[in-house]
Amino acid sequence: MEASSKLAVAGARTAAHLPYHHAQMSIRYGNQESIHYESVRKHQLAGDVAFQGTYKPLNDEVAHANPGSLIHWLTERYCLYTVSSSGEILVGDIHHLPWPIQEAELQIDTNTMTNYHGIELAAPPSVVTYSKRLEVLFWALKKC
């Protein structure tokens, strides 16, 4: 995960044991609600870790994922798991309303994010959704 603030990265890594990395990030808004997003990781050991793409909702229809569907499984997460520096598994509860989801289209120009972890993506994503905003609350991490 990336963040443009070094302070946010340090906080996420120290307090929440989350694998955040400092990145230079930008968002540009285009016509027809398109959003161009770019993230380039700034860690020297990361090498060429970058994402660059444009996405936009396909229409104005907002819905919630149907229980039991793939989109529901992908979006309706209510806890977070991570591993501490000493190897302990930690869990934190999350609360949010159901995601207000719109169908979307995505054009990926560069994506080397997964290469860093030895994962090669052979095709574009088969499911693309968009949500304008979702507020999330989370609680302190606890040992599992």
Give a description of the structure:
There is one protein chain. The protein is mostly beta strands and 144 residues long. The protein has one domain. 11% of the residues lie in helices and 38% in strands. The chain contains two helices and ten strands. It has helices at 6-15, 70-75, and strands at 2-3, 21-29, 35-41, 50-57, 79-83, 89-95, 102-111, 129-130, 137-138, 142-143. The chain has a six-stranded mixed sheet with strand order 1-2-3-4-7-8. Strands 5, 6, 9 and 10 form a four-stranded antiparallel sheet that branches. Strand 3 and strand 4 (50-57) form a beta hairpin. The longest helix has 10 residues, at 6-15. It is globular, with a radius of gyration of 17 Å. It starts with a strand and ends with a strand. The model has no long low-confidence stretch (mean pLDDT 89).
Furnish the topology, listing elements before pairings.
Layout lengths: L1 E2 L2 H10 L5 E9 L5 E7 L8 E8 L12 H6 L3 E5 L5 E7 L6 E10 L17 E2 L6 E2 L3 E2 L1
Parallel strand pairs: 1-2
Antiparallel strand pairs: 2-3, 3-4, 4-7, 5-6, 6-9, 6-10, 7-8
Order of adjacent strands in the largest pleated sheet: 1-2-3-4-7-8
Q: Unreliable runs, pLDDT <50, ≥5 residues?
A: none
Q: Termini separation (Å)? A: 22 Å
The gyration radius over C-alpha positions equals 17 Å
Compute the number of helices. Answer: 2
Organism: Paenibacillus polygoni
Protein name: DUF2071 domain-containing protein
